[in-house]
Amino acid sequence: MGRNNEKNIKKHNDKLHKAQAKAKEAEVLRKEKLASIMKKFNETKE
Fold first, then answer.
1. Angle (CA) 8 12 26, round 5°
2. SS3 helix, strand, coil % of the chain, rounded to 5?
3. In which residue ranges is the amino acid composition biased (Basic residues) (predicted)?
4. How far apart are the C-alpha atoms of 33 and 25, rounded to whole Å?
5. What does the pLDDT look like over 9-41, one tens digit per residue?
6. Is 40 exposed, middle or buried, given 0-12, 13-18 or 19+ CB atoms closer than 10 A?
7. Tell me, what DSSP letter sits at residue 5?
8. What is the pTM of this model?
């Protein structure tokens, strides 16, 4: 049996997609935080 069987491929893809989702979620949170900081900064500036 080879190393590239369905079970191993599925396990790898699940791990990969989980990591990608986590990175995407972190990026969204960063953008939201930046937006709130900019909003607060612009309010205090005026």
1. 165
2. 85, 0, 15
3. 9-21
4. 12
5. 999 999 999 999 999 999 999 999 999 999 999
6. exposed
7. -
8. 0.65
